[in-house]
Automatic annotation (TrEMBL):
SUPFAM superfamilies: Protein kinase-like (PK-like). This is Aminoglycoside phosphotransferase domain-containing protein. Residues 116-326 form the Aminoglycoside phosphotransferase domain. The keyword Transcription does not apply. It holds the Pfam family APH. The keyword Transmembrane helix applies. The chain crosses the membrane at residues 26-46. Coiled coil: none annotated.
Length: 447
């Protein structure tokens, strides 16, 4: 069998499979071989995959036909391929999500891609039991357990919701006014209040287990660099694990390679100060409660209609179940991103506005607490900055968030002395300053 995968409007593969002239496995194999070659090849992949699933009579609507309106415009993101699929003209559409394993900014290992897909599917199925406006999930497949049906890549089939991503604009397509944003914050507060009604006993990410949807290992972080770990029965262990994984990556030379000593000091400081994140006063109530959190909530995860009503929340790929401070405190959606990137430590006007809306909705965790930026700064960390000049303001903001009012040179000198027995730190210093590895007890301040 042969056909031209470069032809964007070709339905040859679909027709051949439907008529039984070739095996669907052969067609899908050819499509997968071509998937990363060009966007048009992705269309063929979608058609072949959907034909395969129709042949297997999986979750597709009865008597549905994949229409010619699969494309031609695929939807692309930094971490995933997306393609729109319609059944008959004018019908509601689905989206097929395929992780961009080889194209992701920091590299996405196949086992992690599989886990993210499985976790997102479980998360969306859980959200179907709530009033949160999230996409319905229809099916998924992963390579590691063979549920990819021989496709060769992980995938997720889900509903496409109406609306457009909200990027801060108002009804008139200019920057949203305070009144317009107040409408957004009020509806978002209602959604967060709904999530508070569904607590969990552990921190981690949702996955299907033998008994149903359970909290399992954390599905990485929004930067996609962490290995799933957990679940965690208390918030101190949860926060500590994040800081420790970054310490391991820094020590192994995988991140912050241009300024490893400075980066190590920052994350060692965060690890040593997780008690400040465990409820107010450093004491948590036991047993602790944890809540589902959308991790990559920059604002464009919200879909809105022309009147700025929230029609849906998308992009749950790295969602996790977290302590209430992280779930309901200041997050990316209300952050002043310029201030966050440049290391200005403060709550934004939008932070305050959403907090007020949450209080008005009666969210119990926030009604009697003063909020701060600690959790947001903890997880933003040093971002994935590659130059110390850009990471330094973030480091200083982290110190300030956790109560340190010293300039970096003064603080880092003290920190080097405090952590002088840390073997991983000494190993890093022995690379940056070789005499440390030769037994020199001096621990000079990093540049």
């Amino acid at each position: 069998m042969s056909f031209a995968p470069w032809c964007p409007d070709s339905l040859i593969a679909q027709c051949l499979v439907a008529k039984g002239q070739v095996s669907e496995q052969t067609v899908v194999a050819i499509a997968v071989t071509a998937i990363y070659a060009s966007p048009t090849c992705l269309l063929l992949f979608i058609r072949a995959t959907m034909s395969w699933m129709m042949l297997r009579r999986t979750t597709l609507p009865p008597r549905s036909i994949v229409s010619a309106l699969v494309g031609p415009n695929a939807i692309w993101g930094s971490a995933n391929y997306h393609a729109r699929i319609r059944f008959q003209y004018g019908s509601p559409s689905w989206l097929l999500r395929v992780p961009r394993v080889t194209s992701f900014a920091v590299g996405l290992p196949i086992p992690l891609a599989d886990y993210l897909i499985a976790s997102e599917y479980a998360t969306l199925k859980f959200l179907e039991t709530t009033t949160v406006p999230a996409p319905r999930a229809f099916s998924y497949g992963t390579c590691s357990d063979g549920t990819d049906h021989g496709v060769g890549v992980a995938f997720l089939l889900m509903e496409e919701l109406p609306g457009r991503p909200w990027t801060g604009e108002g009804v008139s397509s200019t920057v949203a006014t305070d009144d317009e944003k107040a409408k957004i914050w009020s509806e978002l507060a209602e959604i967060l209040t709904e999530l508070e009604r569904h607590p969990f006993s552990k921190a981690g990410s949702l996955c299907f287990q033998s008994s149903g949807i359970e909290v399992s290992a954390v599905a990485s972080d929004r930067f996609g660099v962490l290995t799933p770990t957990g679940p965690f029965h208390n918030s101190a262990a949860y926060y500590t694990a994040f800081a420790e994984q970054y310490l391991e990556l820094i020590a192994d030379g995988q991140v912050y390679t241009e300024f490893p000593v400075d980066a190590y000091l920052v994350y060692r400081f965060l690890k040593d100060n997780v008690s400040q994140l465990v409820e107010q006063g450093g004491e948590a109530k036991y047993p602790e409660k944890f809540f589902l959190k959308h991790v990559d909530d920059k604002g464009d995860h919200l879909l809105v209609d022309d009147d700025l009503h929230i029609t849906g929340i998308i992009g749950w790929q790295m969602a996790r179940v977290v302590p209430p401070r992280e779930a309901f405190g200041p997050s990316l959606v209300t952050a002043d991103m310029n201030a966050l990137w440049t290391g200005k430590f403060s709550l934004s006007n939008d932070d305050v506005a959403l907090t007020d809306a949450l209080r008005q909705k009666g969210l119990s965790w926030i009604t009697s607490r003063a909020v701060d930026e600690k959790a947001r700064r903890f997880f933003w960390g040093l971002d994935l900055e590659t130059e110390w000049s850009n990471a330094l303001p973030l480091a200083v903001a982290i110190l300030e968030a956790f109560g340190i009012r010293q300039d970096w040179a003064q603080w880092s000198k003290m920190a080097l002395k405090e952590y002088e027995s840390d073997e991983r730190l000494r190993a890093l210093l022995s690379i940056v300053i070789p005499e440390i590895g030769n037994g020199d007890p001096a621990m000079p301040t990093p540049e």
